[in-house]
Amino acid sequence: MVENQTYLFIVFSLTGIGLGVLFDFFRALRKTFKTPDLVTYLEDLIYWILAGIIVLYNVWFFNDGEIRIYMILGILIGAVIYTLTLSTIFIKINYFIMSKIKICLKKPCLKRAFRTFIQTALGYVITNVTLALGGLDFNDGDVVKNALIGLAVAAVAAGASAVMNLKEGEDKDNE
Questions:
Q1: What is the rounded CA–CA span in Å between residue 128 and residue 90?
Q2: Are 21 and 89 in contact (CB under 8 A)?
Q3: The pTM is what?
């Protein structure tokens, strides 16, 4: 009994640390990419949806859906420990990486490649969702493998499309 409670406390402390990491990811994202208030609200909504899913999954998976006070305390203590110890380091590393990505995205060729990839990937996802709603079984390993291969093909196609559409001298002007 006590061993199980200790185990759950540790699991939910790690969950609190994970939620802190996720929160800091969104903080670094906001710091790197200045966005309008509406986008900030949407990011907050995405965070809370993801946090809720993570916590509910852990409650369901590790304790058969039973919520105990020590689990909530574990999440809080994990989040506080993370905030007091690793948060500033994680934000600095994350901000550094995101600022490098932001610099890369300023180049016209990369902007175009990223935009084309998003468009292609969205089309690909919509197609797969439509197939799933139509009754395609995604539990088959070949279907998942084919979906990942298709997403990789979408990425290559986006890069090739951006390079092919690059006007002569366009990339040199912005260096």
A1: 35
A2: no
A3: 0.62
